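Sat 14:20. Reprocessing the chain from the morning session after the first attempt stalled halfway. Input below, unchanged.
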Amino acid sequence: MSQEVLFTRATSVAAVIERLLSEACVSVDAALYRLNSPQLARALESALDRGVSVRLVLDRRKFEEDCPARDVVADHRLPFRLSSGRNGPGSKMHHKFVILDRRTVLTGSYNWTLESEEQNYEGLIILRDPKVTDSYAKEFAALWADGEGKGSRE
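Finished this time. Tokens:
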């Protein structure tokens, strides 16, 4: 198992995520509470253009409230589904994790937003462990199955 911990106080977490996305060869599965970073949306679109399978699950309420999030997802033609929390509308799909090629998990407090990169103290943990990845993959599969389909490349 290998792990790495990053903090926005010391580095550009978005740049690290962008690099890792550029290295993905097979799949990117992301459960994100918020996504409005054009930089990271471009990196996801680039992965799609390389033939990488990209699937996003986003929090329904945050997506509906956040016009920049809707725009960035639409502008980059990202396939996504919307999900609420366990209690339906009013509860949150508050995850912040990404599975790259079923080998690497990115998780932590970091939202894929301009605010997280430019204003907030946030953290990202990079985990490379098959058992951890399998656990996250099972959670993502359940979220994807329960989510409402959206997006132009689904």
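The chain has six helices and eight strands.
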